[in-house]
Amino acid sequence: MPAVIVERTQNPAHGDYSVTLPLKLARTLRRPPLTIAKELAAAMALPASFGRTEVAAPGFINVSLEPQWLQAQLTPIAEAGERWGRSELGRGSKVQVEFVSSNPTGPMLFSHARGAVVGDVVARILDAAGFTVQREYYVNDQGKQIRLFGESIRARLLGEPTPEGGYSGDYVAEIATEAQVKGILAEAEPLAAFGITWVRTRIEQDLQRLGIRHDNWFYESTLYQGINAQVIDKLRALGRIFEKDGATWFRSDSSKDEVVIRRDGYPTYFASDIFYHVDKFSVRDFNRVVDVWGADHQGQIGRVKEALSVLGIDPNRLSVLLVQLVSVKRGEETVRMSRRAGIGISLAEMLDDVGPDALRYF
Questions:
Q1: Structural domain of residue 263, as residue ranges?
Q2: What is the model's pTM?
Q3: Which of 306, 323, 340 is the last residue of a domain?
Q4: Residues 6+ apart with CB under 8 A from 34
Q5: Distance between CA atoms of 204 and 183, rounded to whole angstroms?
Q6: How many structural domains compose the chain?
Q7: Exposed e or buried b per residue across 234-273, where buried means at least 16 C-beta atoms within 10 angstroms of its C-beta
Q8: What is the CA radius of gyration of the chain?
Q9: Is residue 324 within 8 Å of residue 114, measured between CB atoms?
Q10: What is the pLDDT of residues 256-290, one digit of tens each?
Q11: Residue 125 CB neighbours (<10 A)
């Protein structure tokens, strides 16, 4: 028996919905699809919300909603307001949606808005379905880029050249000036911490203009207060950790082995992903987690899920939505986006130009 698929009609003159089952049954029953459609239409028992039923060649069953029933829905919809359409489907289930999570080394670029809007929409849908939803922003406040960020602010403060691979946007000068006014010590680490706070404030402001909020800002640095050692020890006990070339590696059954702790003692992005998701599931006890990532991170999904499975966490509790990267053209020229080089179109600029509604839609 083929699946019964009900579709919206392309032409309203043909009704509101169409059933194509007769076309699929014709070969099996060896009968004309139009004949099958007439017999099925005569046997269909539809609720009062449906009115006219018509059969159309070569074998469609088209049904229309009853106009009086449609009119009767307007009053309860208007009375319900924003509550209309909500359900209790997810009642009792705690879900986290982690999205945006742009590095805190500069204001958000316009290219980050796609993942922001997708994550916000997913969170709103889950909330409307009755799930208890937490919207989280992962703040990457550790690693080489943060050290370079602090060194870049320090260089600007002291009038020195930007370090190789550092950040040279005008906003770095703004941060340096404010840090000097506030008497922040001219050392890379405290300047980086001040810069992260400065950037976060502006990211929050830009996202609020886009109609997006986060319930929790989770700092990567909090992962390294005990849980990482516990996770590595457990993986080692399970035979999944080994040492090679001065680094600590994860032994994979499904892909190539991956470094988790570099020779310099710093965890890799892969290790941070493992620690972070163990924290979500085992420490904060979310039933489901939805991550919104850029398409360039697709290769990480399988590795993270394998590590979770090894640690006894059902990998199906994690869903990852990938969004394609954004490119912008002025005429025929592609606009390069680089926060490090201080070039590109910021989210704030795009909001000024087109407003939040157009930006969310496109």
A1: 94-141+211-323
A2: 0.84
A3: 323
A4: 22, 55, 57, 58, 59
A5: 25
A6: 2
A7: ebeeeebbeeeeeebbbeeeeeeebbbbeeeeebbebbbb
A8: 27
A9: yes
A10: 999 999 999 889 999 999 999 999 999 999 999 99
A11: 12
